Amino acid sequence: MRHYTRRAFVRAILATGLLLVAALPARAAAATANDVALFLAGMAPPAESPLTPLTQDPGWQRHARFFDRAFGELEQRQLSKIRAWTAVNLAAPRPTMYYMFSGPDFLYADAFYANATTYVLSALEPVGAIPDLTKMSRGAIVSSLASVERSLSTILAFSFFITKEMKTDLRDRQVSGVLPVLYVFLARSGKTIREVTPVVLDTEGQFIPAADKPGRGATHGVRILFAGADGVARTLYYFSTDLSNSGVKASGFLKFCATLAPGNSLIKSASYLLHSSNFSTVRDFLLSNSASIIQDDSGIPLAAFGAKAWRLFPFGRYKGPIDKFPGTYQRRAAELFQGAPPIEFGIGYRWRPYETNLLLAIKAPGQ
């Protein structure tokens, strides 16, 4: 009898344990990249996301209100007008778009070339990383959100990043580099991130397997697979690389870009670097591999566009460079932009619509 009672007791304990295990909530799945993007962008992730409880924090809610207001104003002031302009002026877009000296500015890449399927962005800023937000303290999360806000302050107000400020803002100890900004722009552009993968190019422009150790001259970047409201699969590449002549000579970045050519290009707020002979290799690459180029006057100098190879369509007004960039005035631009049709949005360093300039350069057939 005692033996039976002991066995029954053991069975009862085991049964109770099973019931307790069954009653416990299932272990929360890890936050997806899209969840993180929504959270950083001040947009609510799905209810089942482990980040959803964090959205109850007053710090995140203030962050969400700030971005709702800032991006709402930007949509009215800039992005909707850019999309309207491109709908009228751009025809037969190429699948690839190049955006050199971009920083993490997917926002304007998407506004000008919404129909591209492969975006290639490049600049000096490192890719960075985003940690597991669920393991960060409340104070660390609020601090990181503030860093993201600061890093976006100038582009939300003036359409460009200030490189020195961005370097400081993107050095947050927790959330660093361009990746968090790319996440915010993708989310706020209505994209759904499907996969994020670090990538490395060798000097021949080929991807190095993840298990291999990158050699000298390797170019580090990230590949983000995403889709918009139309469900079309798209790819965003960002590469951290030196675009000077010596930099591109030592890397395989332009060789990789050539595999995606021809494409369309965007150049804005590029510090007039393409006016310099030290950046002639990238300048020549863009002229050779672009079907069209949209740029402000900080991009490729007009003298580099061959008269037979390119048709130039000016918009806005040319008032010359701002004081920070002396020696880059273009007399030919002053002549070209006389009588040019106005545009309703500002772009580049001359960010006020009444003093901004935009050039659409279209390569002639057969060139």
TrEMBL record:
Task: Tell me where the signal peptide lies.
Answer: 1-28
**Statement: the UniProt record of this protein carries the keyword Signal:** yes
Which UniProt keyword terms apply here? Signal
Q: What is this protein called?
A: Uncharacterized protein
Where does this protein come from, organism-wise? Rhodopseudomonas palustris
Q: What is the lineage of its organism?
A: Bacteria, Pseudomonadati, Pseudomonadota, Alphaproteobacteria, Hyphomicrobiales
